[in-house]
Amino acid sequence: MDYNQIGIDAMQKGDFEKAAEAFTKAIDKNSGDAVPYINFANLLSALGELDRALAFYERAVSLDEKAGAAYYGAGNVYVMKERYQEAKDMFEKAYRTGMENSDLFYMLGTVLVKLEQPKLALPYLQRAAELNDADHEARFQYGLCLANEGLLDEAIAQFSIVTDLDPAHADAYYNLGVAYAFQENREKALAMLNKAIDIQPDHFLSIQAKQLLEEA
């Protein structure tokens, strides 16, 4: 009987008690396998038991130092704890095990932004967007980093793709407005800011930016 799969299925159905029982049986059946410890840690993380989750991820790594999923899971826990340096370290360890997916690159990019290192975040967010065309949030964060580096044409291209993917993304329209304003394209800037306000009438930053442009 595959207790790991039973536990995963139970988690997906929201039956956390059954999931815990199944993962416990999986550990009892093969205590030298890192996988059930990772699964149990994922369950604990979902339940908000963050310190216990970290303990299970650490146990998984002690059994298999190449368990990328354990490092990735621990990184997510550290993000929830707002301990971004430790999260970065865990995500980098996951990457060094050979893990390469859009979620990992996105998380690594966002923690670097949190650590005020947007230039270092750029390639990771770019890769996240490349690996998952539908992930408009990764592309939005990539656009913000480009804008931060003064690469306005490239940032505008990314924000425009975001608005194509998600026409209700007020923040993307706001950032398009700011980028066009910096390029002294007042007409386009106002059009983008108005779109943001249409989508979200209380979008304070857009309202403020529009007032500044109209008063200039």
Describe this structure in words.
The protein is mainly alpha-helical. It has a domain at 1-99: Serine Threonine Protein Phosphatase 5, Tetratricopeptide repeat, CATH 1.25.40.10. 79% of the residues lie in helices and 0% in strands. The protein has 13 helices and no strands. The protein has helices at 3-12, 16-29, 34-46, 50-63, 68-80, 84-96, 102-114, 118-131, 136-148, 152-165, 170-182, 186-199, 204-215. The mean pLDDT is 96.
Q: How does the SSE layout of this entry go?
A:
Elements: H1 3-12, H2 16-29, H3 34-46, H4 50-63, H5 68-80, H6 84-96, H7 102-114, H8 118-131, H9 136-148, H10 152-165, H11 170-182, H12 186-199, H13 204-215
InterPro entries: TPR-like_helical_dom_sf, TPR_rpt, Ycf3
Protein name: Tetratricopeptide repeat protein
Keywords: Repeat, TPR repeat
What share of residues are in beta strands?
under 5%
Radius of gyration: 21 Å
SSE order in H/E notation?
Answer: HHHHHHHHHHHHH
- Largest β sheet strand count, sense and barrel closure: none
- First-last Cα distance: 71 Å
Count, helices? 13
- Please identify the structural class as seen in this structure: mainly alpha
User: Residue-averaged pLDDT, rounded?
Assistant: 96
